[in-house]
Specification:
Length: 405
């Protein structure tokens, strides 16, 4: 084991920046690309598990700048408003004095009503909507179990949130259907008034083993993604849009950091032990990529490293399950560091993609990193260089605009 891996495997601290709580696996939608199992299971996180989860989190070594609770997996609104009344009140009561606590709830937008909005306003919950663009693209993959379209309901929920003073961000999965329509996609999110949008790619992870993007062929897929993101960038810059496009915002920030500090490397939360802590409905714990908590594996015991009902943070950090997982994540990250020219802008994340695509955490390149890191970096750097040449010819100094993008 080389020295860089030995350093990564020093004594761990359970110091979560993001806690993902999964109150239910149930979802009322049957999206074609979903990676989650048991989506028709109606079981709900018990009050005993909820109480133990909150106690576990606040027994950890908490970050100075606060902690985020992300309510996710299945459809979180399927847990019902009474669950969240108890959960939010319990967290507010138990949180250490002075600790900043932020709640984020990522929903599919089909179960929302005014009562939910009242709850979100009362507890200052930040909301996200899963929406894949205009109706003809969204409804190709995001349908109910009976096959009904969902886009109209999602957009009604969006406008209801806005009327209540809430500003939901959009989370969009890029699929074979959407990559051919960058202008249509950009105009949808801009014209709807979303303040931010993040693009995931249809990935192989969890129980969804084969992304349809892999059927396109690597060279054609990379060209399609390049064309999509380049056109999105051009429209976004031409508009002078204040809409935050997550991929551009993060990539610009990474470029600025690496230019200012030559040795600075992006450190994604999913590559740092316990920076992300995922707590399942039954109290079982996972770390690194949150999708690992929904990934079956005999080799890694389904990526479970403990249970809030019986374990303390110190016991989880010393467990053999965590030690093995951490070692293999570190080996994969070290291989990325030594063999990838994009490492400074990536940091070696995408653990669940490595395992699902290659069957090993020691693997390096995945479909997602080829697109969302390598190709995206080429697009942003290339477009900045083109803008710089044009502006220099006019005597104007280029700025990235990362501070206000």
């Amino acid at each position: 084991m080389n020295e860089s891996i030995r350093t990564m495997l020093g004594a761990p601290s359970v110091r979560p920046a993001l806690v993902i709580l999964q109150p239910t696996a149930r979802c009322n939608l049957n999206c074609t690309y979903c990676y989650l199992p048991d989506r028709q299971d109606r079981a709900l996180m018990s009050d005993e598990v909820l109480d133990a989860a909150v106690s576990f989190v606040f027994a950890c070594d908490l970050p100075d700048d606060g902690i985020e609770f992300l309510w996710h997996a299945g459809e979180p609104l399927a847990a019902g408003p009474a669950f969240y009344e108890r959960a939010f009140a319990l967290i507010a009561k138990r949180a250490p004095v002075g600790l900043r606590v932020r709640h984020i709830l990522q929903m599919n937008g089909t179960l929302l009503n005014q009562s939910w909005c009242d709850l979100f306003v009362r507890y200052q919950v930040d909301t996200g909507l899963s929406v894949d663009g205009p109706a003809e693209i969204h409804d190709a993959n995001r349908r109910t179990w009976s096959g009904r379209a969902t886009h109209a309901k999602v957009m009604r929920s969006y406008h209801l949130l806005r009327r209540n003073g809430l500003s939901p961000g959009a989370l969009c999965v890029l699929t074979p259907e959407s990559l051919s329509w960058p202008d249509r996609m950009y105009e949808f999110f801009r014209d709807a008034g979303f303040g931010s949008v993040g693009f995931n790619v249809e990935e192989s992870e969890g129980v969804y083993h084969h992304s349809r993007l892999r059927d396109i062929g690597p060279d054609q897929l990379r060209a399609s993604y390049d064309s999509f993101m380049r056109r999105m960038w051009q429209r976004w810059r031409a508009d002078g849009s204040k809409m935050i496009i997550r991929e551009f915002h993060e990539m610009l920030g990474g470029i600025v950091r690496t230019r200012q500090e030559a040795a600075r490397v992006r450190e994604p939360l999913e590559a740092v032990p316990f920076s992300i802590l995922t707590i399942r409905r039954d109290g079982r714990l996972s770390t690194f990529s949150p999708e690992l908590a929904s990934t079956p594996s005999g080799e890694y015991g389904d990526f479970i490293v403990g249970n809030v009902l019986v374990d303390t943070p110190a016991e989880v950090a010393r467990s053999a399950a965590f030690g093995r997982l951490r070692r293999d994540v570190a080996i994969g990250q070290d291989r990325c560091r030594s063999g990838c020219q994009y490492y400074a802008l990536c940091g070696g994340g995408f653990q669940s993609n490595r395992f699902t695509e290659h069957g090993s955490l020691h693997a390096t390149e995945t479909l997602t990193c080829r697109l969302h890191r390598q190709t995206l970096a080429d697009v942003v750097v290339g477009e900045l260089a083109s803008e710089s040449r044009r502006l220099r010819s006019g005597g104007v100094q280029l700025t990235t605009g990362v501070g206000d993008s």
